[in-house]
Design brief:
Subcellular location: Cell inner membrane; Membrane
Structural class: mainly alpha
GO molecular function, one term: ABC-type transporter activity
Membrane topology: Multi-pass membrane protein
Organism: Altererythrobacter xiamenensis
Helix content: over 70%
Number of strands: 2
Largest sheet: 2 strands, antiparallel
Strand order of the largest sheet: 1-2
Keywords: Cell membrane, Membrane, Transmembrane, Transmembrane helix, Transport
Shape: elongated
């Protein structure tokens, strides 16, 4: 019998397929960088595209209803100025060496900024939990820090827009003079105040299970601290006990420091005291940021 020649790959498809599978398995085993092990992240470092997408999503959300989120607060704040100017600003009354309307205006601007920063960040996660769309924020490849940064950046953006709208309206109002004496104070205290309320709003959004919880924090925490922070008065007119309470209110330092940037005077004290207050707000925001990051990391009230 004649010797048979070995089968060629063309005449033995099964052998050819087996060789291809073995070659592919060898490539997968030998090229771990192309095919990372299960559970290892594919995106390393900061997910810039995801972070930017989240930021744009949050900004577009409040810009779609800009009449309510930007111009509405500006009109409300302007009404505060009109009412208190008429009630308390008659007879050429001056506070800290400036007309009463010019004294009140900076405090109202930064108060509007803080309240709207809180409103924006306190809605982000809460709406997702109630509507069942929280998975849209948790499913993308975003770390807790990136999720937190995107929400906070959008809230601060809304605060800056509201502050700009309120400032323009007040600058055009008769009797109000808005001249910047210390630009660094305007920028620093405006950002620190907006960030502080953005952080408070974010933790409120995590904790809340319904809109009533969010409204409770707004009505019983944010509103009283805002109105009793020296926006319409200097704390030297208060009794010593109430002065001590006011100095324990972080809103007081934001409003007084922001006002210092416009009129060059503050009931915090001299420039050194204003700088110390600004650093204190930075430390408070850092502590709040670390705490809220740990809460997000744990998944409390979100992934349960």
């Amino acid at each position: 019998m004649a010797d048979q020649a070995p089968a060629s790959p063309e005449t033995n498809p099964g052998s050819n397929q087996g060789s291809a599978d073995a070659s592919l398995n060898g490539k997968i085993a030998g090229e771990g960088s192309r095919f990372p092990a299960r559970g290892e992240p594919i995106i390393t470092g900061i997910n810039r595209i995801g972070l930017w997408s989240l930021y744009i999503k949050e900004v577009r959300r409040f810009l779609k209803v800009h009449t309510q989120t930007i111009w509405g607060p500006a009109v409300t704040t302007l009404l505060f100025l009109i009412i208190f100017s008429v009630a308390l600003g008659r007879g050429g009354r001056e506070v800290l060496g400036v007309p009463f309307a010019s004294f009140v205006a900076p405090g109202l601007i930064v108060m509007g900024m803080m309240q709207n920063a809180f409103a924006n960040s306190s809605f982000s996660l809460l709406s997702g939990k109630i509507q069942g769309t929280i998975i849209d924020l948790l499913m993308p490849p975003l770390s807790e820090g990136e999720l937190m940064s995107g929400i906070l950046a959008a809230a601060v953006t809304r605060a800056v827009m509201v502050g700009g709208a309120v400032g323009i309206a007040m600058a055009l109002w008769p009797g109000v003079t808005l001249t910047i004496e210390h630009l660094w104070a305007v920028v620093w205290f405006g950002l620190m105040g907006s960030l502080m309320l953005s952080l408070l709003g974010l933790v409120t959004s995590i904790w809340s299970e319904k809109f009533d919880h969010n409204a409770a924090i707004t009505n019983f925490v944010v509103a009283p601290l805002s109105l009793l922070s020296g926006t319409f008065y200097v704390i030297d007119n208060l009794a010593p006990a109430f002065q001590a309470i006011s100095r324990a209110n972080p809103f007081f330092y934001v409003i007084s420091g922001f006002r210092y940037g416009f009129i060059g005077q503050s009931d915090i004290g001299d420039e050194r005291a204003v700088v110390i207050a600004g650093l204190g707000l930075l430390a408070l925001n850092l502590v709040m940021g670390v705490i809220i990051y740990r809460i997000l990391k744990s998944g409390w009230k979100i992934k349960d």
